[in-house]
Amino acid sequence: MRALELKIPPPVVALLVAAAMWGIATATSRFEISAAVRDSATIVIALVGVGFAVAGVLAIRRARTTISPLKPEAASSLVTSGVYRFTRNPMYLGLSLALLAWAIFLCSAWAFLGPIAFILYIGRFQIVPEERALSTLFGPAFADYRSNVRRWL
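Below the sequence we write its predicted structure tokens.
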């Protein structure tokens, strides 16, 4: 399974999952929900997701370290400030929330499998190898950070 580690950029994974969710939603029955509730929930959850993702990008940029999810070994510093005080993966959390918002918008119970699949895939093929690299690079500092800040929230 290591062959899939760090191979597909997470935004591409999210887009593929979003497309699959749309396909599932068009092929299955949808649940009824008022447009106002659906749209409000979609917008709020998507904005929170975008907020987490943008905050993560800004913190990485401020630290002047790599943002490349495919080369975590190129990290020049361990970012623990800003949004990284609350979650170790704000950008992945943001993508997950965007997929959750998409599932709500699609009004398909089956579409909710998308964010779950994304979280499972990213956890195994992106976060685990990233954490392995960060542990090698930053040793005790990363171990301390990892013990104090949750992976997601």
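Helices lie at 10-27, 35-63, 90-106, 113-148.
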